[in-house]
Amino acid sequence: MVNKKYSLRKSLFLVMIAVLIIGSFLSACSKPNTEAPQEEPQEAEDSQGEGEAQETQEEEEVAPEPSEEEKADMKARADKRKSEYIKVLREIYDNAATPEGDPLDVETSFYEREGNQFAICDIDGDGEEELIFRFLTGPTAAMFERVYHYNTYSNELVRKLNVSPYNDYYTQGLVQVRASHNQTFSTFWPYSLHKFVEAAGEYVLLGFVSAWDKEISETDYEGNPFPDDVDEDGNGRIYYLYEREAVLTESEDEVSPIDDEAFNTWLEENMGEAEPVKLEYFALTKYNIDKYESSDSYVMEVDDSYERFTFGDIEYYLPHDFVEKVNIIETEESTTFYQKKSGEMGMKILDNEEMGRLGSISKAGEEYYNIPRYKFLADANGELYILILPTDVQAIGPYYFDAAKEKNVETTEEELTEIMNEYDILADVMNDIHAKVIE
């Protein structure tokens, strides 16, 4: 193995980790269980029969059925937790501030505020739902993802995690936190691995990993050559693994590059058989907060009331009641949505059937500019997909009543107001579109 001085990569590493790890961590943590598995009992010496032993083991693994009193208590606590999450979401939406009182941006408009996201799911396996909030509408350095949990015993909102956004959650209380930037010579995105420790009530850091691909650069920033002798499998990639203590203490100790086998061993020791937790993120809109409040579910999820759509290499979901009220025009380059009632009334009053435009999903080529009314959706196979919303309201509303009378169109101000109100609701749903790459 060839040792590379930590100091050679310290500058780059600290920039990534400083943005990556926003929250504070415990000074010490429980190490993963690396004890050897117990040996299988020998058949000849086992006093129990094989069937009896298996039956006994299965009986031990079955949790006792909770009593009706326990079930009622669990439901009451879940109801309280959901109620508090609704309060938190409305507070963020109305006042553009986090539960801790941190302002998101005093100049942020409601449209920009609704570009942020939330999810509600039990992500750490403790049997209770968490609120995950993503702040995405600020500069990259200000973006964050926070995991909140409402403790119904102490009646307080606890922050379990505070990191950069776009992370991958796994069972067994694990999360891979992506670095906000990738300034390495690798397509492997650097990340830190965290594990939820129930005794501590928060996630603790296990380590940080980055990589170097020879095909991208044969030398590092200091001009040192790629360590071919470390790359034992010859795939042109080596890893830099920073253990927890090296990250927290900013150790000056030497950090040696490792190959795939050593990295995978570390990953398996810490992640075991953990599986990805599927999370659906929703835009921070009044529509979505209301939908969560009126739902019987304690989590926020895409259910049977949604319909799946595809465009290019992405997929997204829309509520059936939205789809029934819009016209959808699809071309190779875009998908555009129009309110039916505005289109029908617009044809009668203005001879314009394209009234009621709600927005378009479009391909943006290789570049995306963060300008008003443009919202990034996904990067699929090098093609950027964006949501383009109108710069003004394009509904037929009561302000067209005089024009309707001149054209002898039978309508009322009340009917036009209803069309306008429906347009506003559909516009909220349109802004909620969140796409993902088709797997």
Précis, in short:
This protein has 439 residues and is α+β, with helices and mostly antiparallel strands. It is built from 11 helices and 18 strands. Helix 3 (68-95) runs antiparallel to helix 7 (286-294).
The helix/strand order is HHHHEEEEEEEEEHHEHEEHEEHEEEHHE
Distance between the termini: 38 Å
| Strand line-up of the largest beta sheet | 4-3-2-1-10
Which regions are unreliable across 5 or more consecutive residues at pLDDT < 50? 1-8, 10-15, 17-48
Largest sheet: 5 strands, antiparallel
Going by helix content, strand content and strand pairing, the class is: alpha+beta
Number of strands: 18
Report what the structure shows.
With 439 residues, the chain is an alpha+beta fold. It is 29% helix and 25% strand. The chain has eleven helices and 18 strands. It has a five-stranded antiparallel beta sheet. Helix 3 runs antiparallel to helix 7. The longest helix is centred in the N-terminal third of the chain and has 28 residues. The radius of gyration is 27 Å and the shape is globular.
Helix and strand layout, with pairings?
Layout: H1 6-20, H2 50-61, H3 68-95, H4 110-113, E1 117-121, E2 130-135, E3 144-151, E4 156-163, E5 168-170, E6 174-178, E7 191-197, E8 202-213, E9 237-243, H5 244-249, H6 260-271, E10 282-283, H7 286-294, E11 306-311, E12 314-319, H8 320-323, E13 326-330, E14 334-339, H9 340-350, E15 357-363, E16 374-380, E17 383-388, H10 401-406, H11 413-431, E18 436-437
Helix pairs in contact: 3-7
